[in-house]
Amino acid sequence: MLNFLKDMTKSGFFNYSGHLPQPEIGDILKVRFHGNGQDGFYKLLTAKRAEAHLTCNAVKEFEGTLRLISPQNFGFVEDVFIDSKIIEERKLNTGETVKGRAIRSFNKKKMNGDGER
Questions:
Q1: Which residues contact 47 (CB under 8 A, 6 or more apart)?
Q2: What is the pLDDT of residue 116?
Q3: What is the 3 state secondary structure string of the chain?
Q4: Within 10 Å of residue 15's Cβ, how many Cβ atoms?
Q5: In b/e form, how buried is each residue of 41-75, taking b as 16+ CB within 10 angstroms?
Q6: How far is Cα 15 from Cα 33, in angstroms, rounded to an integer?
Q7: Exposed, middle or buried by CB within 10 Å (0-12, 13-18, 19+), for 99?
Q8: Which InterPro entries does this UniProt record tie to the protein (predicted)?
Q9: CA distances from 85 to 61, 73, 92, 117 (A)
Q10: Structural domains of the chain, ranges and CATH numbers in brackets
Q11: Which residue pairs, CB below 8 angstroms and at least 24 apart, start in 108-116?
């Protein structure tokens, strides 16, 4: 199964078996679905990786200064949320320059999208 986010109005999941060899988090795909999804599940007709130059509103490259939020130990680089697990794994500190790829995710608690890495 693969979870997807097209934009703030369309997200869900689909079975990619037989359509995509080893998709990775952050891949931008071109897909066609059969009809509308049911309870977030979409039936896949076709799928392929998009060309390398193609961009998407759900993925963005970022670089900037990390601002930690204590005591929860999560942080932000501008509007990009950095999870505490990443901060701990990489031993990051406030003021460090951080560079990466942000992938928008759907925050069910807030019922909207949050930029989450």
A1: 16, 19, 20, 29, 30, 31, 32
A2: 41
A3: CEEEEEECCEEEEECCCCCCCCCCCCCCEEEEEEEEEECCEEEEEEEEECCCCCCECCEEEEEEECEEECCCCEEEECCEEECHHHHHHHCCCCCCEEEEEEEEEEECCCCEEEEEC
A4: 12
A5: ebebeebeeeeeeeebebbeebeeebebeeeeeeb
A6: 11
A7: exposed
A8: S1CSD-TOTE-1 (IPR054426), S1CSD-TOTE-2 (IPR054427)
A9: 20, 9, 10, 11
A10: 2-49 (no CATH), 59-116 (2.40.50.140)
A11: 112/8, 113/5, 113/8, 114/81, 115/60, 115/79, 115/80, 115/81, 116/81, 116/83
Tell me how far apart the 2 most distant CA atoms of the chain are, in Å. 48
- pLDDT-based confidence at residue 112 (cuts at 50, 70, 90): very low
Higher pLDDT, 111 or 48: 48
